[in-house]
Amino acid sequence: MGNALVFLLICLDCCLHSPMYFFLCHLSIVDICYASSNVPHMLRSLLGQGRTISFAGCGAQIHLYLIFALTERVLLAVMSYVRYVAICRPLRYALITICRLCLTLATVLWALAFVFGTLQASLALHLPFCGPGKVVHFSCEILAVLKLACTAATAGKVLIFAVCVCFFLCPLALILISSLDILATGLRIRSAPGWHKTFSTCGSHPTVVGVFYGNAIFMYVGPRSGNSPGREKVLSLFYSLVSPSLNPVIYSRRNKQVKEALLKLQRRKRVFHSV
Fold first, then answer.
1. What is the pTM for the complete model shown?
2. Of 24, 156, 201, 275, whose CB is crowded by the most CB atoms within 10 A?
3. Residue 116 is part of which domain span?
4. Which string of DSSP letters, residue by residue, matches 183-221?
């Protein structure tokens, strides 16, 4: 509901029709789809309504999970770049405000996520599986499913790992570089109002990035030997449910324009009811 509200505010308020909010709108869509791909089955299992899933259903869950996870990683990097251009290269920002360029960027990032998510899911699902078929997880998480493979399948697993690293490290490097440039530019601003405006405008995005990538580092990059199944499941629950739910709260609380758009929507609703 929070992500749907952010999406509605950006669509209805013309003041939010800018590249930053255009990609924030896509982030809300990704978060809704991301959580919806595995949380319903997870809740069904936790409520004791059945803990089984078909192989096709598990494959669909892995496929959707990978697509939306990869999309969010690239999307956060694109949003960081847009903020970097808006603050550090304001003369070039006019080029990004062109609708065609924004649509092209959005199409490319969705296409990349779909292609590489499909590649990873196909490699994982074509491995030979044997044994009891018990996934020690809340959902069909790819690392938990790969543990059920009968053979080592080193080439497939290496390729899956390479795609994960590429879609993890490259966006993270772009985010860190753009954030450091924004920080350096903000520190060079002498006036207190300008300094405050710069960091208040971009304060919400580093928070979202920190929550998303911080949890991903603990879950996928940390040492595997010390990770118990219970810890992995809790991290996955945070990664797939808590993080998408926090994003609209973070952006709405720390963004003045989103707050103003919400107040406008409330005033419209009151006028509508009074009429």
1. 0.81
2. 24
3. 2-270
4. HHHHHT--SHHHHHHHHHHHSHHHHHHHHHHHHHIIIII
